Amino acid sequence: MIENFAPNLIRLRKQKELSQKELAKKLGISPQTISNIENQTAYPTFANLEKIAKFFKATPNQLFGTSSQIELENSVFETDDYVDKANLLLKAVNTFHNFSLDLEDYSTPEAYALETITKLDNLLKREPILDPETDEHLYRYIPTGILVRAEDKTEPETEYELAYGSSILEKAFDRIEEIEDLYQKAQYIVTTQDLLDKKS
Fold it and tell me: Is 2-65 CATH 3.40.640.10?
């Protein structure tokens, strides 16, 4: 294994188009050390080995493996990459398929877009705040944010605006910490129950 290190280091260095001196500078070690390792007159210390591995982001195979082992590992990495890309493509196709099914329920794409926009608008819409006693709109005094009735306004109209409450989406965000807390508690209960079941 160790005999493969020198040719692998040379290969990795040349892939990055670095001279021995340039690599040594980047690693913070002497050029002579790099030369000795590549000429197989010395082996890397654990400290230098760690520096080399981190710099090249190399796997153990890429450092100590034979050419065939490295090629095999690269093939596996490429396969994993292809699988990830294929899964992403399948998700995109599935999303498009579902979108197409949704469109079938509408006479035109514009009708689908209109309903989607309407739904979003409903989530973002803020309802006026009403006086619980009179059911009339309340106004917000802009300088202080205090809510007042129409008959209680004492300043110029420009100092007031209709008061609106939070939208459905804003209310959901306002309670996000509460929801997260409930989720954590539920997770704790489930985990504890699993442990109790295993013990019994």
Answer: no
